[in-house]
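Worked example 3 (structure in, sequence out).
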């Protein structure tokens, strides 16, 4: 037999299970909820009558939900005894009240407010991932929910996030609520905010230190095989060598062959303002990114800073050759029209990718020998 206290503890443990909490708060299927109590054994009834009596009195005192009673025959009893056999809870409100836990009651009250404010797409996340909002002021969480419903890819247009006007948030808002906002935007844009980063998705200027990977592609240029450098340092300091290869993704380092007098800079994403420094105009520059709308947007930004740079491995014939086995859907397009800074063939590729259900070809799917051939072609052109 279970006491009300034991049942309350079980209910509280269930509250802390994300999948159970989600099912009971978002679906009507689990209700009403039945908690079996169990009958006292014949031995307990005969040898510990006071304990059984206390058990019965404890369940009579329960005022939440409905306690189901049944007459039970015991040999030690002259007549059937009415015993509690099941505790029925009909709603989430009764579930929370039955636990008699002030912390859970406060969480439930907060969730009621948040779910009432939230777009339907966000409700499951709020219920399952309480850590994203639990220790934040509710009014700020509600502001984040509203903001997540209005922001769109590219809406910052190169400005810092803190300068986005018209959203009713202060300059530190994005620092305090970036993790929650990222996850909310993931729900709208199929994980793109986590994959690309909030500043990249919104096309915002990253005012923090953005670290890139710098790797010499031959011996003697740097005392390290690779090192981390902030993009603010790249604005003020040139790297050695006459050629610089800018690569969108760090994970492509293993595809790069040895190239004389060449340094690769990997992982800059949309943070390409450093390319505007005059010392980069003295280098032979090449850019290699994913064949998707974001990669082409980054190429356009890089070319705006340095019009003479050479794009590599970013053309429609190459995409069409690899697409049947390697192209995947792009979670969200960078923008619905081709950005300024692309050539006519690149603009045509951008529009072509927008028309496809699988309009993304990541750099890693190109064979190392194909990458080597393109880089050696650039090398020969720049001699």
């Amino acid at each position: 037999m279970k006491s009300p206290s034991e049942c309350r503890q079980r209910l509280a443990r269930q509250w802390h299970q994300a999948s159970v909490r989600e099912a009971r708060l978002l679906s009507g299927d689990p209700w009403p909820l039945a908690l079996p109590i169990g009958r006292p054994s014949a031995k307990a009834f005969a040898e510990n009558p006071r304990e059984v009596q206390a058990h019965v009195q404890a369940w009579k005192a329960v005022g939440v939900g409905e306690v189901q009673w049944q007459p039970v025959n015991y040999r030690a009893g002259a007549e059937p005894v009415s015993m509690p056999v099941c505790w029925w809870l009909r709603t989430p409100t009764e579930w929370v009240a039955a636990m008699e836990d002030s912390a859970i009651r406060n969480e439930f009250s907060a969730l009621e407010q948040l779910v009432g404010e939230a777009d339907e797409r966000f409700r499951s996340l709020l219920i399952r991932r309480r850590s994203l909002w639990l220790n934040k002021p509710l009014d700020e969480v509600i502001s984040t929910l509203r903001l997540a419903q209005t922001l769109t890819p590219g809406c910052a247009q190169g400005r810092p996030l803190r300068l986005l006007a018209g959203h009713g948030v202060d300059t530190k808002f994005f620092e305090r609520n970036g993790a929650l906002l990222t996850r909310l935007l993931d729900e709208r844009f199929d994980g793109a905010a986590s994959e690309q980063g909030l500043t990249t998705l919104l096309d915002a200027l990253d005012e923090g230190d953005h670290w890139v990977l710098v790797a010499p592609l031959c011996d003697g240029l740097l005392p390290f095989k690779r090192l981390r450098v902030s993009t603010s340092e790249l604005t003020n300091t040139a790297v050695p060598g006459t050629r610089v290869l800018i690569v969108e993704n760090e994970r492509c380092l293993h595809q790069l062959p040895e190239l004389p007098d060449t340094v690769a800079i990997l992982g800059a994403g949309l943070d390409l303002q450093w390319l505007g420094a005059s010392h980069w105009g003295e280098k032979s520059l090449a850019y290699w990114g994913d064949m998707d709308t974001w990669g082409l947007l980054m190429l356009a930004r890089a070319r705006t800073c340095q019009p003479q740079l050479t794009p590599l491995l970013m053309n429609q014939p190459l995409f069409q050759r690899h697409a049947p086995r390697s192209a995947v859907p792009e979670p969200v397009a960078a923008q619905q029209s081709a950005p300024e800074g692309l050539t006519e063939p690149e603009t045509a590729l951008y529009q072509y990718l927008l028309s496809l259900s699988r309009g993304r070809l990541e750099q890693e799917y190109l064979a190392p020998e194909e990458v080597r051939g393109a880089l050696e072609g650039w090398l020969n052109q720049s001699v």
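Notes: The chain has three domains: 4-100, 104-202, 211-382. The radius of gyration is 31 Å.
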